[in-house]
Amino acid sequence: xxxxxxxxxxxxxxxxxxxxxxxxxxxxxxxxxxxxxxxxxxxxxxxxxxxxxxxxxxxxxxxxxxxxxxxxxxxxxxxxxxxxxxxxxxxxxxxxxxxxxxxxxxxxxxxxxxxxxxxxxxxxxxxxxxxxxxxxxxxxxxxxxxxxxxxxxxxxxxxxxxxxxxxxxxxxxxxxxxxxxxxxxxxxxxxxxxxxxxxxxxxxxxxxxxxxxxxxxxxxxxxxxxxxxxxxxxxxxxxxxxxxxxxxxxxxxxxxxxxxxxxxxxxxxxxxxxxxxxxxxxxxxxxxxxxxxxxxxxxxxxxxxxxxxxxxxxx
Length: 315
Prior knowledge:
13 helices, single chain, transmembrane helix, mainly alpha, membrane
């Protein structure tokens, strides 16, 4: 068996069975033509000459892929909507896991590290299941060429959005991070209402009653943040109304955090349940510093969005 026959057989092994004979004949004719042309120049060819021609053609797997390109697991026509669905579902699962872990944390008062472990382990498990289900669904859809061709909607150049600066695109990661934060705060504020008096007395650490009452009044601000995030999901770029709403929201968050920092104790500690807790005054100073540092984040976004509003006004 000469080298050409062995080479063609190696290529055919990488091809679908129904195309092996046809492509094998075409490839054999192509290689024989090249060898005949070389023989006219050099005379009788050796195995080394044949091997040089085959090396020039490339590895059998690469040659097979030139005839039959490999099909991606998910069709390229489905890839944008697949990624968007994946991000949306994972974001929603993250928010739900924050709510579930926060509820369990408030009920049992386990440590911060266990709370973070609960969030991470719960989210990873749900995310693996969601990723598998979504990927398999779009993989099956990709096996239907007719259906894949329908994914491109009718459009007209006049319907294309205006060109905007890069900063106007809103990241899904930022949206779901904010949603998770607001969900955590809402559960933290309202979940104790379901506690019995005995459960409240047994809590080792809880919000001080004045701070909890104040945060209860601030609930509309958190709900407004959730509504704003949902609006950002529908329109994924910053415009003037969204920027104005975000400026108002961040202004309110800065004021809330500053008030909590200066208004008095944020937490109540059950000294009977935690007799060896570190010094209360030091803990209170740490909380104040943490609140002031946290206020810098919405403060930064407040200044950033004011500057963006000026850019849009000049545009």
